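F.,

This is the one I mentioned.
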């Protein structure tokens, strides 16, 4: 199944699913066209991860369970102790931990969806949200100089494409170019970048410049879920770039 279907079934955001993949908790197959294919094992793993995070287990605790370094019962006992000692902690997480401790003895036997439904019932009773999934992201690295040079490379790349089209399609050879032609190429390259970059970010999670400078990609926090928002962001960036 594709990631969109996984999002719908699990209720997880795409960035969280990518994050869990980068942490080695799920292992989707890579198809020839570059897309990921998620199997039932990945889906079941995501249910379990979502359940564990709902019980406020840390990512390190979850990775230890998946790797076999810690048992579920051992981890849940520690979690129960933590819940008992923390003032104002959510009581239904402790209750579900107790139920799971008595019913589950291994990761393979854990039905993540079953206990997620139980948590949802508890959430309705208390009126409190139970799942901190939005915290699961790869930290975004702020490197303004990388972003600047990535943007310069992107603009140069699209301007080069415009120049190539002018030369090979319209037979406008470079020796006939003047300063005005260069300005036109740059403007057209910028327009092309504003149109193409949202597609690249939504499909690949990066652009040529960001890929080269290591400042983009799904593991760097670049996320575009809706093209209109990305178009607005790029348009705003273009205004700042040209000082309008």
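My design for it:
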């Amino acid at each position: 199944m594709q990631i969109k279907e996984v999002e719908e079934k699990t209720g997880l955001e795409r960035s969280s699913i990518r994050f869990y993949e980068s942490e080695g908790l799920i292992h989707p197959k890579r198809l020839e066209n570059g897309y990921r294919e998620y199997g039932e094992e990945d889906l079941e793993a995501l249910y379990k991860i979502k359940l564990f995070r709902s019980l406020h287990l840390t990512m390190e605790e979850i990775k230890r369970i998946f790797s076999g370094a810690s048992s579920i019962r051992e981890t849940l006992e520690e979690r129960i102790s933590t819940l008992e000692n923390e003032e104002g902690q959510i009581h239904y997480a402790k209750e579900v931990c107790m139920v799971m401790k008595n019913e589950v003895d291994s990761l393979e036997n854990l039905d993540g969806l079953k206990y997620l439904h139980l948590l949802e019932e508890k959430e309705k009773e208390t009126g409190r949200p139970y799942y901190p999934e939005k915290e699961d992201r790869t930290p975004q690295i702020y490197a303004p100089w990388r972003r600047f040079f990535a943007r310069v490379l992107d603009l140069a790349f699209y301007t080069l494409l415009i120049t190539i089209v002018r030369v090979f399609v319209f037979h406008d050879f470079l020796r006939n170019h003047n300063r005005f032609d260069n300005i036109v190429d740059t403007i057209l390259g910028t327009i092309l970048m504003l149109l193409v970059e949202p597609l690249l970010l939504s499909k690949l999670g990066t652009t040529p410049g960001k890929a080269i400078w290591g400042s983009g990609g799904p593991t760097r926090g670049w996320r575009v879920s809706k093209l209109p928002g990305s178009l607005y962001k790029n348009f705003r960036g273009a205004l700042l770039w040209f000082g309008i």
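The first strand starts at residue 29 and ends at 30.

Talk soon.
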